[in-house]
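Write out the 3D structure for:
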Amino acid sequence: MVIKNLESKNILVTGGAGFMGSSFIHHLLSSKDFYGTIVNYDALTYCGNLENLREVQEDRRYIFVKGNILDQKFVELILESHKIDLIVHFAAETHVDRSIESSRVFLETNILGTHSLLEALRKFSHMHFHHISTDEVYGSCDENGCFYEESAYLPNSPYSASKAASDHLVRSYIKTHGISATISHAGNNFGPRQYPEKLIPFMITQMMENKPLTLYGNGLNRRDWVFVEDHSRAIEAILRHGRKGEIYNIASEENLSNLELVLKLIEIYASFENQDPLALKEKILFIKDRPGHDFCYAMDAKKLCQETKWQPKYSLDLGLKKTIEWYLSQKTLLVKA
């Protein structure tokens, strides 16, 4: 067991105004049994949005602090002043395309930012650190392949390389400095409130605005899809039932090609909006592939399931329906933006 009595802990969530971080905060605060404090520490860069947490901003258990994880002294001040017991580290630059165009900020945030947190943590030996990482650190596998926690790291983009480096830093601090930490690798998260540069919200907003549905290459690149609420549940499960120093893969086994995913989105969206799915399919446009585009990400999550009893709650179809419903409910605001 990593954390005893999680419901009473003071938790610092880095990047809590982002998509996955805000989902985790919502998840914990949705339980009346949670009576600790969540401090959302976020620099509010382009994909951080406090509107993601509008429903909980008056909750006494929730505090927002604007700050950059690179500012180690300020991090230490927050850790001490709020009597933090646990850090859940979501803050990261995550978009592969952006890392190809300009990688420096990825190195600064993902590597140096994580290093700043780890250095701060050395001064608070009682704290636990959970590091959110990605399946992309393993590189690409073939259609029938699968990655395990022991698989070699072979990152193929500046983004995945920066996350791989941050994973190695966390492991080194566990071994060298004896910090208490865990690491998780997640498949592609999706759900409400996701920034529209990612594939699923991009396709939904393109359909809402009657624009082309652009796909890289031939659309056959494969991904594992995890509904964001299931990801939040998995993080909680690791914190409650995992083992210190361990790595856990979070995967749903809902693995399909980008083209298959878009066709699913079209069918569900068309049923909600009473549109002709064939007309939407005609808007699919294949464009030049991006450099170093990994063919397939797939992970085995048996370790997580066996040790923590976590299982996905949402099927891909149900998660997509909930996601499309949310974006349609925000249609006026999204189109104006």
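The chain has one domain: 6-194+225-254+294-314.
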